[in-house]
Amino acid sequence: MDPGNRQNVQPLEPSKLSIKSRPLYQPSLEELVDVLEEGLRANFVEVTIGITDCPNFNEQPYNFHREGLCGNPIVFDIGDPAYLLPSAQRDKFYDVKSLLRHLNYNTTDCLVIGAGAGPWPRTGCNCELIMKMHLSPRQEVENATRYAFVGKTPNEECVLHQVPVNEDETTFALLGNLYVCEGRPGQVIGVRAKKRTGNLDFIACMQKALGSRYKDKLVGMGGTFVMRNGMIKQHVMRDFSKTPLNSEAELNNWLRFYEMETPLTAVGTFVSAETDLDLRVQHFHSASDENKLGGHYHIDTTPDTIEYEGYFNVATIIHRVDQPANKLQFGKD
Ligand SMILES: [Zn+2]
Q1: How confident is the model over 172-192, as pLDDT tens digits?
Q2: CB-based neighbours (< 5 A) of ligand 1, an ion
Q3: Of the residues 134, 238, 285, 331, which has the maximum number of CB atoms within 10 A of its CB?
């Protein structure tokens, strides 16, 4: 946080943004269990997957201010890494509350979780967004959102900022991959995986399984997972680069990579394919209130000991908001 550097930038008006809404193919949870299990078993020694009731997501380590992942589930792919690269486009500033109102998704309680870039005009500095919030039908916010920053100390330790629970802060910058539902209890897919022997991360093995099974259909999922008993490679964006980032190497040099301690709790989305909507196929950010860490999930670095526990639901619609005219050539991982 750099509150002295706050900027008076207003979120883009949803009615002025391009929004492409597309129904998603919704396999049954039974079928998805089979598909995802195959991907997980190719990558992990111990896998337990099935249909299960949501744990109470009101409680730690989730802290969603809603009980479940069910009720009218949708996914958003908003903005794009193309608005970050090669240089940050400072007008790309969004408000999820006004987007949901614009889409008439505001008459019910809703849970918003996901990954994106934090609202630099409010924080005064670019950061990672770990969005978790409950919006009531009266548009009141219960916030559990976290921002992860690269600390301005010599060794650049990660700094986690906790948005106060009653703060009406629903904005973010540049890009976001969000899962929205009514936050009701219900049945979802529960996954436990241990001892990674494949090269894919926890989400990639499931995302690729969706991609190879549903070749001509688009499937979208969202949810959360907890990582325990290991270390996790995550990145945090530094403040905006003063020079353009023109290659993967320049991007990776600008990002600050960390090996973070667990437990970490992640939120985000994954879809079966990029399609003509130029979707980001997976995007999860995680944080730990205990260790005051957070960032963009890449993979565990302790495959022998790592344990994942995840809960996911399948969405009915995807809204692609503000898709750029030109497809980005690098930087979508
Ligand atoms: Zn990210």
Answers
A1: 999 999 999 999 999 999 999
A2: 115, 296
A3: 285
